[in-house]
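Sat 14:20. Reprocessing the chain from the morning session after the first attempt stalled halfway. Input below, unchanged.
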Amino acid sequence: MFIVSALVYPAIVALLCLGAGLAVDRASGGFLPGALLLVVGVAALIGVAQLTTYVYPIATATPYVLAAVGVAGLVVGWPRLRLMRWRHRRWPLLGAALAFLLPAAPVLFAGRPTFSAYMVLTDSALHMIGADYLVHHGQHYARLDLVNSYGQFIYDYYSTGYPTGADALLGGTAVLLRVPIIWAFQPFNALMLALAYGPAWLLAKRVGLRGGWAIVAALAVTLPALVYAYELIGSIKEITSLPLILALGVLVTTHERWLWGGARAAIPFAIVVAGGVSALGVAFGAWTTGAVLVLLGVLLADRALARRHARQLLALTGAGALVLLIAAWPTWRQVSGALSVAQAVTGSANRGNLVTPLRAVQVFGAWLEGNYQLTPHGVSLVITDLAIGVTVLACMLGALHLVRTRRYALAAWVALMILLGVVTTRLGGTWSDAKTLALSSPVFVLLAWGGACALLRGRRRVFAVVLALALSGGVLASDYLQYRDTVLAPTARYDELASIGSRFAGRGPTLVTDFDEYTLYELRNMDVGGPDFMHPPQMLGIDVGHGNYVNLTHARAAVLRRYPLIVTRRDPTAIRPPSAYRLLWQGTYYDVWGRAPGAPAAIARIRLTGRRLVPCSHVRTLAGFALAHSATLVAAAPVEVATVDLKHARRPAAWRRDGPWYAMSSPGRLTASFTIPRSGAWNLWLQGEFMPDVAVRIDGRLVASLGGQFGGDAVVPDTTAPVRLRLSAARHRLSLALTGAGIGPGDGGLAFLTAIFLTPVGVGDRQQVQSVSPTRWRSLCGHRYEWIEAVPRGSQSPP
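Finished this time. Tokens:
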């Protein structure tokens, strides 16, 4: 699956984009530059996916329609492909390959299906379920179950005019190649960003750069630090829109090739605008306005020529408007909702996942910090400020170069892009401002490379080389730090969730007690409800707070009755579901509980923790209630646990306690002891967040090397997969080491330790449930239980 999702899938999507671009080029008269074909093609495929999902009875045909369009375009465009001088394009093609490999690096070097910046921005979970829903059900939301989280997510977003273009294309292409959308997500975003290389290269050439200069400049323009960060966090709308914005710049600056060409010459421009509107929403109109204003300026600058071609211009305008209307028809049909969405985003005070507003200077490409939300410090801050200062000076020199060399259309487009960015950030909120900064950053970097071109033209080659090294080095160093600090999604855990989704499909509604919005995708056929997602079920009668799990002992029994299935993380220290549920399936990471047929809900319950002895007074009161209501007492005993004492462990001074965590902020080793009460097979469990590898040894013997074990939840510790051991009844010594020496994705990422414990393998690995007559209530006194329930007689409590 790794090779298919990481390499085969994006390669085939790129071929389909090329085919669609060739088809548009053929229809418009064959004037498109080769480097623009894939971008125009992706815009065309977005339009196709929008229309097929809009006519929802044929939504399931979307993958095959996309394939047909791409293949047909390759067929009709084959003569042009044969005439291309590929030998002379090998270096630009290498640059294009690097433009994909760099943003895809976290997945490629992980060597497994995954996606980056896990849980940093969980909007990606929304896009995954949306992509799947659109391809299977189309833009039809009338039959959604609005009680649970899955239905609420889909309805509250997509039925209100939320942009669906990028999601529909992601879903259509992933389903076509039978790649799970969760594993296609990162390669898709990497490919969308890589498509920006083509127009960036053409713009670099319009600036005046040639050969290797244009290739390196195009890479820097495609991958500035802020853009790379947004690709890592999966901002699919913005990343898909970026190549379309740059494509508009190319079409504007090469207007002489098509502006006087009549009606069909308008097709590429209209297709690109439609794709942008469908992917980003009506906010794409800001960048479209800039491009249209430049074209109007061209016409005003040569009125005589415009009058001679008035008829062609009128036909071009009409044809463009018609194509734009059809290709983005679903957006125009919901334009009022789309405007409301745009206004809500720009006017919202909600910062989303941002700790503080981004700094405006981040548009200049370099930001030497592993997290784009944080400010560099120490030496990194000095180098960052120096790189930004050099880029600002280069931008000034670049602006002067564009004017001096009379590249007026390009200068006007750059100026308007910068002006629109400034105006938009002044009018928007923190969240929308950050998106605008990311989309504006390539224009600033392009302008800075204009400064390098000015130095070359002035025969100051040494200074040009130094400037080029500064510009490209700042971008690449910034991207590397983010690559090394990113957090990758756990592959095995989500594969297990997918198997649960297949095994229990259609048997919901299902309550997921773990805070993990990606369960909405993996369990999408189980009618999922979850704790405090962005749109929670609001059914449990409790407020667990953002990021917390559902404590089932606090949920009302009448509410739980609505859920035939409950999915919990496999954690022996967690509270067992009520007695009405029995364990249906157990995996490495999850347990699936099902309500026993005919099992009634408890009529009363004592909520306990399993850590303290139960006072007799509590049991006596519940027993009296049970006798009065002809009920039986049912108690859940906790799992036997051998805890590793972390409070008295030896650890590096830098590993300080931060709330529930021990922050493993630097390489080092922790040593602690624990006692096993009897010999046999035991499971070793670690709780925390472990992105880089940590080595676990017991009595000097390596028993596990854990990495990529991440829940992404800052409130509830993640429980790793159990490690099975055979241990003697004795006192043992455990060590946990973090080296921090790797250069792979996530090797500089987060490592937090919360707890280490062991449980006996087998029956002792799960809570035990016992039924007791109310008259024998004293047998429950002085023991540890997670809960005691009063259950109506005649029901059999599941084991």
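The chain is about 50% helix and 15% strand.
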